[in-house]
Specification:
The chain is mostly helical. It contains eight helices and no strands. Mean pLDDT is about 85; it is low at about 1-10.
Length: about 200
C-alpha cells in the first residue's frame, strides 16, 4: 500500500474504496468495543461481511489496517477543514495546528492508554501528511529556498506541540493553544508568507 498525500488522493476503483471503508468501519467498531490486541482478522471480516481473502487482498494484517485507518481519518480531518485547497498564510497555519490538536485529542480519547505502542504509527501518518500539505503550500509561494527542510521542521513542530498540549490535559482550548504556539510553528516558515 502506498501512502497517500493529502492533496493527491489515490485513484481507486469504487469497489475497492467501498471494501476498504467497510473493513475500516468494522475495525473501528471493534476497536471501540474490545481494543486492538483482542481484535483478529476474522473478527474484522465477520463484522464487515467479507471473507479473509478479501481482507488480505487489501491489507497485509491488522497493523496495516490500523495504519490505513489512522491515515484516512487524518486525511478526512484535513479535507473537512478544506486545508488541502488553501494557500499558505498564518491563519491557515493556525487552523492546521488546531486540526492536529483536536485530532490527536480525539484519537487518544478513543484509544486504550495501554496502546501507546501505536503512537509511532500515528506520528508517522500525521507528520507525513502535514509535511505534504505544508510542502504544497510552500511550493505555491515560491519564496522559500529549501521548502522540503522547512516543511519537515514545521510538520515536526506542529505534531510535537499538539502532543504536548494533548498530554498536559489542560483546560486550554485548541484555539488558544494554537494562538500561543503559532510563532513557534511558523519560525521555519517566516520567509514563506506572502508580503
Amino acid at each position: 500500500m502506498s501512502s497517500n498525500s493529502c492533496h493527491e488522493p489515490e485513484k481507486l476503483d469504487p469497489r475497492v474504496t467501498r471494501t476498504r471503508q467497510m473493513l475500516d468501519h468494522a475495525f473501528l467498531e471493534l476497536l471501540a468495543e474490545k481494543g486492538f490486541d483482542a481484535i483478529s482478522v476474522q473478527d474484522v471480516t465477520a463484522r464487515a461481511g467479507v471473507n479473509r481473502a478479501t481482507f488480505y487482498a487489501h491489507f497485509q494484517d491488522k497493523f496495516a489496517l490500523l495504519d490505513y485507518s489512522i491515515r484516512e481519518s487524518f486525511r478526512e480531518e484535513i479535507e473537512k477543514r478544506m486545508l488541502q485547497s488553501c494557500h499558505f498564510n498564518m491563519d491557515n497555519l493556525r487552523h492546521l495546528i488546531v486540526a492536529v490538536c483536536e485530532f490527536t485529542r480525539n484519537l487518544s480519547s478513543h484509544c486504550v492508554p495501554a496502546q501507546r505502542q501505536f503512537e509511532p504509527l500515528v506520528e508517522n501518518q500525521i507528520k507525513g501528511q502535514l509535511y505534504e500539505l505544508i510542502l504544497m503550500w510552500l511550493k505555491q509561494t515560491e519564496q522559500v529556498n529549501s521548502p522540503e527542510t522547512s516543511a519537515t521542521a514545521a510538520s515536526w513542530a506542529i505534531y510535537g506541540l499538539a502532543m504536548q498540549w494533548n498530554r498536559e490535559k489542560k483546560n486550554q482550548s485548541a484555539e488558544s493553544f494554537a494562538d500561543e504556539v503559532l510563532p513557534l510553528a511558523a519560525a521555519n516558515l517566516r520567509f514563506a508568507e506572502p508580503a
